[in-house]
Amino acid sequence: MDRASRIDAGDVEGNADDAEQRGFFGRFGARIGKGRNDSAPNLHTREALLLLQNYEESRQGWFWSTDAAGRLTYITDAVARLMGRSGGELLGTPFVDLFLPADSNGERQRTLPFLLTRQSKFDDLPLRAASAADGEERWWAVSGRPHFGGGGDFAGYRGSGTDITAQRRSAEDASRLALYDSLTGLANRFHISKKLDSTLAAFAQQQRSCAIMLLDLDRFKQVNDTLGHPAGDALLKQVAERLLKIVGDKEMVSRLGGDEFQIILPDQEDRGKLGDVAADIIASLSQPYSVEGSRCIIGASVGVAISPFDGVASDDLVRNADLALYAAKGGGRGRFRFYSSDLHQAAEDRRALEEDLRDALGRGQMELHYQPVVQAKSNMVTGVEALVRWNHPERGPISPSLFVPIAEEANLIWALGEWVLRKACEDAARWPGDMRVAVNVSPIQFANEDLPRVVASALATTGLEPDRLELEITESVFLGDSNETARMFKALKGLGVRLALDDFGTGYSSLGYLQSAPFDKIKIDQSFVRGATVRGSRNGAIIAAIVALAEALEMETTAEGIESLDQLDLIRKLHVSHVQGFVYSKPVPHGELLEHAEAGSWMIKPAGPAKQRTDRVSLFRKVAAIHDNHRYGVVMRNLSASGAFIEGLLEVPVGTRFVIDFGEGQLVTAVVRRSMKHQQGIEFEQSLVSDGNGGLCTRHRVSPYLIAAAAQNTPAMALPAFTTTSDWQAA
User: Fold this and answer.
1) Has domain 2-170 been given CATH number 3.30.450.20?
2) Residue 291: CA count within 13 A, CB half-sphere
């Protein structure tokens, strides 16, 4: 090859068309072959050229040459055609024009014009073709040697090239596998970790914020167990597609592994907007999926951490987002949670609760309370819902919203659910009359083939009539619409018990399973009820549609969570048959229920606020109230999105402005609207937002960078201008 490459292209006879038909080496070899008295050297040269011609035709490599100005004097025709031109058409074209511009691809490619100008030799320089006949990306490894005339003057280049497209694609595939998840195409754990490191490092210097979300799919394991891992993989692909539609930037969404995902949201610290994004993600991922002909329903929980408030280093931020995710799952799943410093202690407490929960049943710490279900028209109690309560020996009553998720994760839910079922049947068998008892059945219980046997045993042991037992089942049991689900319904209905569809309308609803599943009642989720009386709400129309559907299917309806008289009035107008909520009664202990039941018919007169109010949270929380450079410690007694009730200052004038410091950079301006000695009702200038877990938080926080800067320039606080409660008590 080297010997052939030293033959000057100017020695070749014939025109460009001839060159296109034969190629440089073929044509030159044919001319040599015309002589009859070939010498041995000529025979050797001809054989070499024929071999090179064969090499060209095999397309394993190609050759090129230029003049001193860098214009092509020869190029293998087969390669020229791959570039969308013929060899003759390319003659006279600058060699560098065959490849993409110098600033389009990598550092090595930028050296080509420099090498040609310096008349330097080069080997296997990777270059991307500027055009290709098939429109696909094509790469070449090009080598070249300068050659000189008899007087030593530079005459141009001669060189060769090989197609490295396949190797390049293989390398890119390997790189993609190293950086991207092979199943979903999202960034993988390694890639997103590097991305987060670089983003946080740059943002720390620029004092910019960055949020991350960690999310975990709820009930995904049931998909794998029910439909198999291929179906689970198909589901994960659809999850990735939904996430990309919400986030938009593919580089900011990653699959960490299994059913865990991470999202980076640069320049975002508004917790109102972040909460909206998290809620959108949860709502989107909770919509039904179609996988291999089956209908699947899952959910998602989201944990959110924001730099620099919740950590500057990536490890700290991810750990804190993970704590928030753990808290969201512990709060009942299907929700989001922002990180706060108290989550560390909460995580420790939760682990301790799990250990205590394992012994709670055996130690008699569990009991049932019963919330009346009332006929809307007559105010008569027709049944009750059994609700489990845990009386911890040291911590007192513990909310089911806290310990039930723990029981599910610790594989204790089956034992707990069986105890609730047997205890509810035992209690109900002692009640006079025919009042029904409703018992919640978790998806984990419903998936257990022993459930019908346990129900039958509880009925037989206690002697309770089957039609007085109502099993409340959530829509998530229709996860796979499998034959097992249908068989379970048939088995339970065969026992004579009633079936109620719980939390209807929360995003999973399908008219299809209402047609096939043998429900006796639909329970309308309280999220529809609470917003139904708000001006402009469409919830009333939705409730009316649910009632019409239930009546057409000969089912009863129960509206949950009724707390105000205007809500009750609306529910009655919409013809909901039954009501459950604080407007009638909170859950009561069994002893109190017996007193009412033994007295005969149980009628409850509704009572409560006339209109729905902004939800208020009762609490006892120490916060700071700042006024005119004075900082006071006060106690917050209740809290809503729009205001709060504080005590700790005396005779504060109405209209006084405070900055309330909740801690961790959470500041909100408030105005005193009511003042009664040492108690004040304050209104926030900017409403608080949901923290995703039933609590409230400020939309924005003061950056640690600003706090650090202010601390260096702020004088010591002056003496207080208001008398505090502690001063008054001391006096």
Assistant:
1) yes
2) 27
